[in-house]
Amino acid sequence: MTTRQDCVELDAVDPLGAVRERFSLPDGVIYLDGNSLGALPVAAARAVDEAVRRQWGEDLIASWNKHGWIGLPQKVGGRIAPLIGAGTDEVVAADSVSVNLFKLAAAAVGARGGRRVVLTEGGDFPTDLYILQGLAGMMPEVELRVVEPGGIEAALDDRVAVVLLSHVHYRSGAVRDMAGLSTAIRAAGALSLWDLSHSAGVLDVDLNRAGADLAAGCGYKYLSGGPGAPAYLFVARRHQAALRNPLSGWMGHARPFDFVDDYAPAPGIDRWLCGTPPILSLTALDAALDVFSGLDMTVVRAKAAALGDLFIERVEARCAGKGLALASPRDATTRGGQVSFRHPQGWAVMQNLIARGVIGDFRSPDVIRFGFAPLYVRRVDVWDAVEVLGEILDAESWRDPRYQTVAAVT
């Protein structure tokens, strides 16, 4: 059985240990919610201050050229590309995950001839389902087909145009077989569209090796780009000429500053831009990506797996018989960077944890989630967090009325 001293000793030789110093982390807090909002990188705060005070404040509109604002979507996309196994000309940072999924799904339907079925699984991340419902609602010829988990391959037929799935399930942390499913989808004549929001920055994602066609993901979770950070999208090079962005905004034009009346799509990945890029947010995300410089994502994933394994081991030893049930895969090879447990009073337990300085989150109806961002979470953090959880469950302090009121953001 792992001891706290074992954790201290392993942290001392952790190859990622020094990366923690690149983050601004509050004293007295164990932050296990990087799967919802990544911690603040020191460089991001400095970069935004520079962009506000000097670039915007002094150089004003000249900064679009002088400081390269106009090229930030491509620059940031190119920096995300190696983290997801893509070419730098296959990724661009733009919009939100929801908007990007709409663009990619609509484009996929438009490019697959008479195929009009959009396929996904029930219980996947809500915005993904909502976007597909909206797409089907505005295009009567599109049929949204939602199947039970595990039913994708059986539902593939010659009417399916695109299949949208999350690589890592937001509630359980289960990792889908991207390569196997992409192969099956391609064999059926459809396109695969992957949501990478809970995998990029914590897993060794390789879109091109897996044969993925399209993907989108957010910048504010493991990539630590800040609240509401811009998202990104991936279009495999082999599809770029055939697919058309349905949101044909001026930044996706071949010559946006010619200001002509008729739209002409830019070549390559640039056509997936739409409106004016959010410079301050992109600046924060750009600087945040510095923390990944020189890191081997297989090492990052290995540490995430080790932290998750340790958490499960400790919870099942320290909190046995206290109403917790594992809701994530036990096998780390099929688990992302989080571990989820069910508890009948999950909301109250999590609020009590947060009040004690251990920050995770809750997902309805009864799931408490703990994210292990390997760049700043230590093994000793995991040990101490479980000890606090055990004390709360032993004392049933979660029964306090102040932990019962459900907040707007869970």
Q: Outline of this structure?
A:
The chain has helices spanning 4-12, 42-59, 63-66, 72-80, 97-111, 126-138, 152-155, 178-187, 207-210, 279-288, 297-318, 346-355, 379-395; strands spanning 23-24, 30-31, 40-41, 91-93, 117-121, 143-147, 160-166, 191-195, 214-217, 232-235, 325-326, 338-342, 358-359, 361-363, 367-371. It is of the alpha/beta class and 410 residues long.
Q: What do these coordinates show?
A:
With 410 residues, this protein is of the alpha/beta class. The chain folds into two domains: 4-31 and 295-403, Aspartate Aminotransferase, domain 1, CATH 3.90.1150; 48-292, Aspartate Aminotransferase, domain 2. Helices cover 35% and strands 14% of the residues. The chain is built from 13 helices and 15 strands. The chain has a seven-stranded mixed β-sheet, with helices on both faces. Strands 11-12-15-14 form a four-stranded antiparallel β-sheet. Helix 6 links the parallel strand 5 and strand 6. It is globular.
Search tags:
410 residues, Aspartate Aminotransferase, domain 1, Aspartate Aminotransferase, domain 2, 13 helices, 15 strands, globular
Give a topology summary.
Elements lengths: L3 H9 L10 E2 L5 E2 L8 E2 H18 L3 H4 L5 H9 L10 E3 L3 H15 L5 E5 L4 H13 L4 E5 L4 H4 L4 E7 L11 H10 L3 E5 L11 H4 L3 E4 L14 E4 L43 H10 L8 H22 L6 E2 L11 E5 L3 H10 L2 E2 L1 E3 L3 E5 L7 H17 L15
Parallel strand pairs: 2-13, 5-6, 5-7, 7-8, 8-9
Antiparallel strand pairs: 1-3, 4-10, 9-10, 11-12, 12-15, 14-15
Helix pairs in contact: 1-13, 2-10, 4-10, 5-6, 11-13
